[in-house]
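Task: sequence in, structure out. Protein: DNA-binding NarL/FixJ family response regulator.
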Amino acid sequence: MVRIRVLVVDDHRIFAESLAAALAAEPDVDVAAAGSGPAALRCLERAAAEGRTFDVMLIDADLGTAPAPGGGAPGGMPGTGLPVHAQIPRQPGAHSDPHPHAVAVAVPDGAGRDGPVDGISLVVGVRSGHPTVRAVVLAEKDDPRRAALALQAGATGWVAKDCSLQRLLAVIRGVLRDETHLPPALLTGVLRELTAARRHRTESERLVESLTPREREVLRCMVAGLGRKAVAERLFLSPHTVRTHMQNVLGKLGVHSTLAAVALARRAGVGPADLSAGAGDVVERGGQLA
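Result:
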């Protein structure tokens, strides 16, 4: 039997443990639970190192937005000193399992040292670092805008938290067949949001293409958060020349601040300069910024 490994990520402990326990009752599902985004990423990395990668992550849309009661540290299971990854034992009488201890992975709590990560940002991190893992977002309410953001980030499903267990299992199995799942009531709104986002992206791409290669280098440095002096050192230019390039970038993009320029660049798919590379080593691929 092919087993499905699921990681539940939710900072509400009762919900996370209840959902994990319900899923663990399935004969072909192994489950782990994490109480924060950083904890989930650590869990993925450890599982990958041990050759036991997860197949699906169920991520709370509101992850990281709720304060921890009782003064608990952010990122741990709220109000406890327990590990943020908890074993979910099978219930007595549940389906027999030749690997009774493979239901979950327990990882010591390192919460708080990496800071909170919200649900959409976690989807981005998962798709970037663990592209084979399918991310499904669990939401308390339907929100076309946020659902569209989740899909753009790389999620393959958006599911209401009050859906039935069988519906959730159908989504889990469906995304493993490369299906994308959305509630029917959200389809029209999500399509509208995605169309609008594509329109904005196309306009942003057109503006970025109007920049010279050197101005695009400067823009990538701006996206990386470098100031004028750091850009000058990286590109072997004088601060005055960098200032001129930055003014030209803002003018051509039609914005009035560095923050606005960075936001537009990100919409156009412009990534940050690779700060690990040597100074001046800014690469373009196929006429577009790497």
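The mean pLDDT is 78.
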